[in-house]
Design goal:
Order of helices and strands: HHHHHHEEHHEE
Distance between the termini: 76 Å
Number of strands: 4
Low-confidence stretches: none
């Protein structure tokens, strides 16, 4: 039978002090961040599973309802010759937020805040566009509208192209937001693969 060696508390303390310490932001007890909100998380995951299970007439995505809501409103505005008014309505709704960001940019001189406010921390964008490449002074993403536009066009529900959506709605909205924030956005043309870039200049 092995002999039990008593613990040398002084030696143990010396070893602990020599060991590298964890960064201050590390927590001893790790959690998901959803403690107390498990039901909410379960409902969200149920929605994701139901949505991704829909594969007809095309593979649905978790942003599908938001995509179709935007497209329906844009098609209505197009049908009634109101696209410019629709963009202005959207700009006006966002005016309080954009003016607040303008003040922060003036106080800090940090134009990157304009991109962060529109693309990075706004669920209106990241729920619409599921993946955005973030680079200093620039954001890049793939237009989320093509699949739904193609399906709705085949069924006679819409008569727009993805380029229409970009040129008549997405680009003018972004440029209007930038003006309200006191900066300028350079928004690219829609590339053949649907890629769009927006730079703050």
């Amino acid at each position: 039978m092995a002999k039990v060696t008593p613990i040398d508390s002084a030696s143990s303390a010396r070893q602990e002090s020599a060991a590298p310490k964890r960064p201050a932001h590390w927590r001893e007890n790790h959690g998901s961040g959803f403690e107390g909100r498990e039901a909410l998380l379960g409902e969200a995951m149920s929605m994701v599973i139901k949505t991704l299970s829909q594969t007809e007439p095309y593979q649905h995505q978790v942003n599908g309802a938001l995509v179709l809501t935007h497209l329906g409103a844009i098609q209505f505005a197009k049908n009634n010759g109101l696209l410019e008014e629709y963009v202005e309505h959207d700009r006006k709704m966002m005016e309080p937020v954009n003016f607040r960001i303008k003040k922060l940019i003036e106080e800090t001189g940090n134009k990157e805040l304009a991109l962060e406010s529109v693309f990075d921390i706004t669920e209106c964008f990241y729920q619409l566009v599921l993946d955005t490449k973030i680079e200093p002074g620039k954001r890049t993403w793939v237009s989320p509208f093509k699949t739904s536009i193609d399906a709705c066009t085949r069924m006679g529900m819409m008569d727009m192209t993805e380029a229409d959506v970009h040129n008549l709605w997405m680009r003018p909205r972004l440029e209007a937001y930038a003006r309200d924030m006191g900066v300028e956005f350079r928004v690219s043309d829609l590339a053949d693969d649907g890629t769009i870039t927006c730079e703050v200049i």
